[in-house]
Q: What sequence folds into this?
DNA sequence: TCATCAATTAGACGTTTGTCGAAATATCGA
DNA sequence: TCGATATTTCGACAAACGTCTAATTGATGA
Protein backbone atom coordinates (compact mmCIF):
# COMPACT_ATOMS: atom_id res chain seq x y z
CA UNK A 1 0.00 0.00 0.00
CA UNK A 2 1.26 3.41 -0.96
CA UNK A 3 2.24 6.02 1.59
CA UNK A 4 -0.33 8.69 2.40
CA UNK A 5 0.93 12.20 3.12
CA UNK A 6 -0.93 14.68 5.26
CA UNK A 7 -0.64 18.39 4.59
CA UNK A 8 2.02 18.92 7.19
CA UNK A 9 4.32 16.21 5.87
CA UNK A 10 3.68 17.30 2.30
CA UNK A 11 4.75 20.80 3.17
CA UNK A 12 7.77 19.57 5.10
CA UNK A 13 8.90 17.62 2.05
CA UNK A 14 8.44 20.61 -0.23
CA UNK A 15 10.57 22.73 2.10
CA UNK A 16 13.20 20.03 2.41
CA UNK A 17 13.54 19.88 -1.38
CA UNK A 18 13.81 23.64 -1.69
CA UNK A 19 17.42 23.71 -0.57
CA UNK A 20 19.93 22.69 -3.27
CA UNK A 21 22.27 21.09 -0.79
CA UNK A 22 19.56 18.87 0.59
CA UNK A 23 18.50 17.92 -2.89
CA UNK A 24 22.05 16.88 -3.68
CA UNK A 25 22.33 14.91 -0.47
CA UNK A 26 19.11 13.12 -1.29
CA UNK A 27 20.34 12.30 -4.76
CA UNK A 28 23.57 11.02 -3.34
CA UNK A 29 21.71 8.75 -0.95
CA UNK A 30 19.23 7.62 -3.55
CA UNK A 31 21.92 6.71 -6.03
CA UNK A 32 23.41 4.17 -3.67
CA UNK A 33 21.82 0.79 -3.27
CA UNK A 34 23.32 0.43 0.18
CA UNK A 35 22.83 2.72 3.15
CA UNK A 36 25.11 5.74 3.01
CA UNK A 37 27.32 6.60 5.99
CA UNK A 38 27.10 10.13 7.27
CA UNK A 39 30.86 10.56 6.94
CA UNK A 40 30.69 9.85 3.22
CA UNK A 41 28.23 12.69 2.77
CA UNK A 42 30.51 15.03 4.63
CA UNK A 43 33.38 13.85 2.48
CA UNK A 44 31.81 14.93 -0.78
CA UNK A 45 30.52 18.34 0.15
CA UNK A 46 31.99 21.50 1.55
CA UNK A 47 29.74 21.95 4.53
CA UNK A 48 30.57 21.59 8.21
CA UNK A 49 29.49 18.56 10.20
CA UNK A 50 26.99 20.70 12.09
CA UNK A 51 25.36 21.95 8.93
CA UNK A 52 25.25 18.47 7.48
CA UNK A 53 23.61 17.18 10.62
CA UNK A 54 21.04 19.94 10.41
CA UNK A 55 20.18 19.10 6.81
CA UNK A 56 19.93 15.39 7.53
CA UNK A 57 17.50 16.12 10.30
CA UNK A 58 15.35 18.18 7.94
CA UNK A 59 15.31 15.36 5.41
CA UNK A 60 14.48 12.86 8.09
CA UNK A 61 11.68 14.78 9.75
CA UNK A 62 10.27 15.28 6.26
CA UNK A 63 10.24 11.50 6.02
CA UNK A 64 12.44 11.43 2.94
CA UNK A 65 15.19 9.44 4.59
CA UNK A 66 15.64 6.96 7.41
CA UNK A 67 18.65 6.78 9.66
CA UNK A 68 20.18 3.92 11.56
CA UNK A 69 23.08 3.98 13.93
CA UNK A 70 25.76 1.30 13.55
CA UNK A 71 28.26 1.75 16.32
CA UNK A 72 30.01 5.04 15.88
CA UNK A 73 28.43 5.61 12.51
CA UNK A 74 25.04 6.69 11.28
CA UNK A 75 23.75 5.43 7.97
CA UNK A 76 20.98 6.74 5.81
CA UNK A 77 18.71 5.36 3.16
CA UNK A 78 16.15 6.95 0.91
CA UNK A 79 12.47 6.40 1.60
CA UNK A 80 11.55 6.08 -2.02
CA UNK A 81 7.95 5.31 -1.15
CA UNK A 82 7.64 8.69 0.53
CA UNK A 83 9.26 10.48 -2.38
CA UNK A 84 6.87 8.69 -4.73
CA UNK A 85 3.91 9.72 -2.60
CA UNK A 86 5.07 13.31 -2.83
CA UNK A 87 5.40 13.09 -6.59
CA UNK A 88 1.97 11.53 -6.86
CA UNK A 89 0.40 14.32 -4.86
CA UNK A 90 2.18 17.02 -6.83
CA UNK A 91 1.07 15.38 -10.04
CA UNK A 92 -2.54 15.89 -9.00
CA UNK A 93 -2.19 19.61 -9.47
CA UNK B 1 9.26 17.72 -27.02
CA UNK B 2 9.33 17.90 -23.27
CA UNK B 3 10.58 20.93 -21.37
CA UNK B 4 14.16 20.83 -20.15
CA UNK B 5 14.94 22.46 -16.82
CA UNK B 6 18.33 23.84 -15.92
CA UNK B 7 19.53 23.78 -12.33
CA UNK B 8 18.48 27.33 -11.66
CA UNK B 9 14.93 26.88 -12.86
CA UNK B 10 14.67 23.57 -11.08
CA UNK B 11 15.66 25.23 -7.84
CA UNK B 12 13.31 28.12 -8.44
CA UNK B 13 10.43 25.70 -8.87
CA UNK B 14 11.33 23.82 -5.71
CA UNK B 15 11.35 27.08 -3.76
CA UNK B 16 8.10 28.20 -5.34
CA UNK B 17 6.41 24.98 -4.24
CA UNK B 18 7.75 25.26 -0.69
CA UNK B 19 5.20 27.87 0.30
CA UNK B 20 1.74 26.48 1.10
CA UNK B 21 -0.03 29.54 -0.23
CA UNK B 22 1.69 29.30 -3.57
CA UNK B 23 0.92 25.63 -3.76
CA UNK B 24 -2.76 26.38 -3.21
CA UNK B 25 -2.72 29.12 -5.81
CA UNK B 26 -1.14 26.75 -8.28
CA UNK B 27 -3.74 24.11 -7.56
CA UNK B 28 -6.48 26.65 -7.98
CA UNK B 29 -5.11 27.67 -11.36
CA UNK B 30 -4.48 24.12 -12.47
CA UNK B 31 -7.97 23.01 -11.59
CA UNK B 32 -9.50 25.45 -14.02
CA UNK B 33 -9.54 24.69 -17.72
CA UNK B 34 -9.72 28.36 -18.53
CA UNK B 35 -7.27 31.07 -17.56
CA UNK B 36 -7.84 32.33 -14.03
CA UNK B 37 -8.21 36.06 -13.38
CA UNK B 38 -6.01 37.54 -10.69
CA UNK B 39 -9.02 38.97 -8.90
CA UNK B 40 -10.53 35.51 -8.48
CA UNK B 41 -7.41 34.35 -6.68
CA UNK B 42 -7.58 37.32 -4.38
CA UNK B 43 -11.21 36.55 -3.75
CA UNK B 44 -10.61 33.09 -2.38
CA UNK B 45 -7.68 33.73 -0.10
CA UNK B 46 -6.99 36.00 2.84
CA UNK B 47 -3.90 37.71 1.54
CA UNK B 48 -3.46 41.29 0.43
CA UNK B 49 -3.21 42.23 -3.23
CA UNK B 50 0.46 43.08 -2.75
CA UNK B 51 1.24 39.68 -1.29
CA UNK B 52 -0.72 37.91 -3.99
CA UNK B 53 1.18 39.81 -6.65
CA UNK B 54 4.44 38.82 -5.02
CA UNK B 55 3.50 35.13 -5.03
CA UNK B 56 2.32 35.21 -8.61
CA UNK B 57 5.62 36.68 -9.63
CA UNK B 58 7.47 33.88 -7.86
CA UNK B 59 5.35 31.28 -9.62
CA UNK B 60 5.88 32.97 -12.95
CA UNK B 61 9.63 33.42 -12.70
CA UNK B 62 9.76 29.77 -11.72
CA UNK B 63 8.03 29.08 -15.00
CA UNK B 64 5.09 27.30 -13.38
CA UNK B 65 2.52 29.76 -14.69
CA UNK B 66 2.07 32.16 -17.57
CA UNK B 67 0.30 35.49 -17.34
CA UNK B 68 -1.54 37.50 -19.94
CA UNK B 69 -3.10 40.89 -19.56
CA UNK B 70 -6.61 41.42 -20.87
CA UNK B 71 -7.49 45.02 -20.44
CA UNK B 72 -7.66 45.83 -16.78
CA UNK B 73 -7.28 42.20 -15.81
CA UNK B 74 -4.43 39.74 -15.68
CA UNK B 75 -5.10 36.08 -16.26
CA UNK B 76 -3.00 33.08 -15.40
CA UNK B 77 -2.69 29.57 -16.64
CA UNK B 78 -0.67 26.63 -15.45
CA UNK B 79 2.37 25.55 -17.44
CA UNK B 80 1.69 21.90 -16.99
CA UNK B 81 4.61 20.96 -19.19
CA UNK B 82 6.96 22.72 -16.80
CA UNK B 83 5.39 21.06 -13.79
CA UNK B 84 5.73 17.71 -15.51
CA UNK B 85 9.37 18.40 -16.26
CA UNK B 86 9.94 19.16 -12.60
CA UNK B 87 8.22 15.93 -11.58
CA UNK B 88 10.26 13.97 -14.10
CA UNK B 89 13.51 15.40 -12.77
CA UNK B 90 12.56 14.76 -9.17
CA UNK B 91 11.59 11.21 -10.06
CA UNK B 92 15.16 10.59 -11.18
CA UNK B 93 16.37 10.76 -7.62
C1' DT C 1 38.89 4.52 32.66
C1' DC C 2 40.53 7.50 29.04
C1' DA C 3 41.63 9.12 24.61
C1' DT C 4 39.67 9.36 20.28
C1' DC C 5 36.57 9.62 16.56
C1' DA C 6 31.55 10.40 14.92
C1' DA C 7 27.57 12.90 15.23
C1' DT C 8 24.36 16.12 17.49
C1' DT C 9 23.03 20.21 20.01
C1' DA C 10 23.36 25.03 21.50
C1' DG C 11 23.96 29.61 20.52
C1' DA C 12 24.98 33.23 17.46
C1' DC C 13 24.92 35.75 13.09
C1' DG C 14 23.72 37.45 8.44
C1' DT C 15 20.46 36.48 4.61
C1' DT C 16 16.25 35.35 2.60
C1' DT C 17 11.39 35.23 2.80
C1' DG C 18 6.39 36.39 3.58
C1' DT C 19 3.71 39.96 4.81
C1' DC C 20 1.59 44.46 4.81
C1' DG C 21 0.23 49.54 3.84
C1' DA C 22 1.08 53.17 0.86
C1' DA C 23 2.35 54.89 -3.43
C1' DA C 24 2.75 54.15 -8.33
C1' DT C 25 1.30 52.29 -12.77
C1' DA C 26 -2.09 50.44 -16.21
C1' DT C 27 -6.48 50.35 -18.38
C1' DC C 28 -11.00 51.43 -19.19
C1' DG C 29 -15.48 54.15 -19.49
C1' DA C 30 -17.79 58.43 -19.02
C1' DT D 1 -9.23 64.18 -19.51
C1' DC D 2 -10.76 62.42 -15.21
C1' DG D 3 -12.18 59.04 -11.98
C1' DA D 4 -12.57 54.35 -10.85
C1' DT D 5 -10.83 49.75 -10.71
C1' DA D 6 -6.91 46.24 -11.16
C1' DT D 7 -2.31 45.19 -10.48
C1' DT D 8 2.51 46.13 -9.33
C1' DT D 9 6.30 48.28 -6.92
C1' DC D 10 8.46 50.26 -2.80
C1' DG D 11 9.90 50.28 1.79
C1' DA D 12 9.68 48.30 6.08
C1' DC D 13 9.43 44.62 9.42
C1' DA D 14 9.35 40.08 11.82
C1' DA D 15 10.02 35.28 11.26
C1' DA D 16 12.37 31.48 9.16
C1' DC D 17 16.55 29.66 7.30
C1' DG D 18 21.48 28.22 6.37
C1' DT D 19 25.70 28.48 8.25
C1' DC D 20 29.40 28.34 11.53
C1' DT D 21 32.20 27.45 16.01
C1' DA D 22 32.20 25.51 20.40
C1' DA D 23 30.44 22.40 23.53
C1' DT D 24 28.13 17.93 24.23
C1' DT D 25 26.79 13.21 23.66
C1' DG D 26 27.56 8.42 21.85
C1' DA D 27 30.54 4.59 21.03
C1' DT D 28 34.87 2.20 20.47
C1' DG D 29 39.36 0.35 21.61
C1' DA D 30 43.63 0.67 24.24
A:
Amino acid sequence: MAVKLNDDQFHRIARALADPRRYELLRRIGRSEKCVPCGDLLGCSEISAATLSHHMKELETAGLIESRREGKFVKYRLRRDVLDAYLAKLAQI
Chain B touches chain A at residues 7, 11, 14-15, 17-18, 20, 23, 26-27, 30, 78, 83, 86-87, 90-91, 93 (CB under 8 Å).
